[in-house]
């Protein structure tokens, strides 16, 4: 098997993120691969039904700013180059598919909760990422 050259690790910025980051760091170092760190901010408009007209730009900007700060902290802690620390806005699965393709990534790393039963039916980000990513995908089990 040839070594992976460019990996993308997607994190949700919860307290579970380090579990995924630790694995991503170890695997990328073992392969001598470049590591990209990605967080996708979901548009506030998705959560808000829109019955009352409201300008959500400022709130979205604040969310983007907070995400960039938090991602930057993780990026620095895990030795990810600044240009490989990416925050985008959209649906996590779609953005991860897009970036993996655009950036010529050969391994995508995401966390997985190993859901069962009804929860499984609702779907997970890991599942969404797997279906639609052309390169290999590694699901890190979250405990
Ligand atoms: P989930 O099971 O849907 O809670 O998501 C599990 C994993 O999906 C997380 O550990 C991350 O790797 C990835 N993920 C979920 N949400 C995001 C997000 N907004 N941006 C980037 N990655 C995410």
Structure description:
26% of the residues are buried. The two termini are 29 Å apart. This protein is of the alpha/beta class. The chain has a single domain (6-40, 67-141), classed as Rossmann fold, CATH 3.40.50. Helix content is 44%, strand content 21%. It has a 5-stranded parallel beta sheet, with helices on both faces.
The CATH topology assignment is Rossmann fold
CATH class group: Alpha Beta
Portion of residues in helices? 40-55%
Order of helices and strands: EHEHHEHEHHE
Structural class: alpha/beta
Rg from alpha-carbon coordinates = 16 Å
**Which stretches of 5+ consecutive residues score pLDDT under 50?**
none
Tell me the number of helical segments per DSSP (H or I, 4 or more residues long).
6
Quaternary structure annotation: single chain
The named CATH superfamily: HUPs
Number of strands: 5
List keywords for this structure.
single chain, 143 residues, alpha/beta, Rossmann fold, 6 helices, 21% strand, globular, binds adenosine monophosphate
A few lines on this structure:
The protein is of the alpha/beta class. The chain contains 6 helices and 5 strands; from the N terminus they run E-H-E-H-H-E-H-E-H-H-E.
